[in-house]
Structures are given as C-alpha cells and as structure tokens.
Amino acid sequence: RKICKWCKCSQEDHNLSSDADDDRKIGRLLSDSKYATLTARVKGGDGVRIYKRNRMIITNPIVSRKDPTFDTITYEWAPPGLTQKLAIQYMELIPKEMQPVAGTQGAAWRRRQLLRQLPLHDQDPSQCRGLAPGEAALMEDFVKSYKAEALGVGEVALPGQGGGAKEDGERSRPPEPNGAVDS
C-alpha cells in the first residue's frame, strides 16, 4: 500500500519497516540481476534473498594525555566495493543532515527514500490488485527487462577522475551526492 488505511498519509511517514524489511525489499530487487552478489540467501527462507548491508564504521583515535579514546562513526550504508578513504570522501559530498549515520535524521531519510523508490507492487505482480492474467505476464517481462537493462550500481570516483569508459565512449560522471545510480 502506498498510503495508510486509517489516516491516508504516506507509508514512509509511519516508518513501518525495519532494517530486515528494507534488506528483503532490496534483496528482492537485486535478485535475478547481475547484482545478485550483493545479496545472500536466507537459511530456511524458501529461496528469499536479502541485501547484504554494507555498513561502514570509521574509528578515529583521540590522543590525550591519559587514556586514548576513539571517536566512532557508523554509516548505515556505504557504496559497495570502495576503499574506506574513497567512501569517506563520498560521504563528505553528501550534505551533513542527509548522511546515513546510524541513528540520525539522514539515516531515517534514506530509509524513507527506499520505501518510496522500492514499493513491492512495482517489483512483484502478485502484490498488485486487479491485474488481468495477461497484464501479470507483461509486468513480469517488464521487471525482468529493467533488472537486466536499467538496474545498476553507480561507480564512485573523485571529481575529474571518472570511472571506466561507457559503452558509447562517454566517461563516467563524478559521484552523485544523492546516491544516484547509473543506468
């Protein structure tokens, strides 16, 4: 459902999903795609795949006269396949209030965006009401098509360095601070 049955507000306003729910949604999206390696099969879960959350923990020692202490920042999400240095630089490009630091408004904002961007009824015909049998088959074909052609994990590079060359010879763009993905 896109809206609440009782108050008619959007689903993300209620923050109804948990980390496990979010991981299942992303796992469902990435399953049967070339990014299935970012998922793991749930033991005893009837073939359900979940997203292997890529958390990043940064520990900075604070040296004082007596005992050393550590300043630790936990990001609920970080782009996969990056060195910690590049991931930190990527996170610094995101406005401070939108960085997905655990327990902050930025992490909650990212989860709300996932709810809005990954509704179940856009990925699974069985979650749609009122589809005719022919429409369900067409939707399954569409989902397979976008998983093969449009689903992607963007490359992250420092401004001016760009990633590998695109198919049409165009160079990759610098990192998008809003977590945009290349298609």
UniProtKB/TrEMBL annotation:
Start and end residues of each PET domain: 56-163
Q: Where is the composition biased (Basic and acidic residues)?
A: 165-174
InterPro entries registered for this protein in UniProt = PET_domain (IPR010442), PET_testin (IPR033724), Pk/Esn/Tes (IPR047120)
Q: What is this protein called?
A: LMCD1 protein
Q: Which GO terms describe its cellular component?
A: nucleus
The keyword Repeat is annotated on this UniProt entry? yes
**Tell me, what's a Pfam family for it?**
PET
- Where is region (Disordered) located? 156-183
Which keywords annotate this record?
Repeat
Among the GO molecular function terms of this UniProt record, one is:
transcription corepressor activity
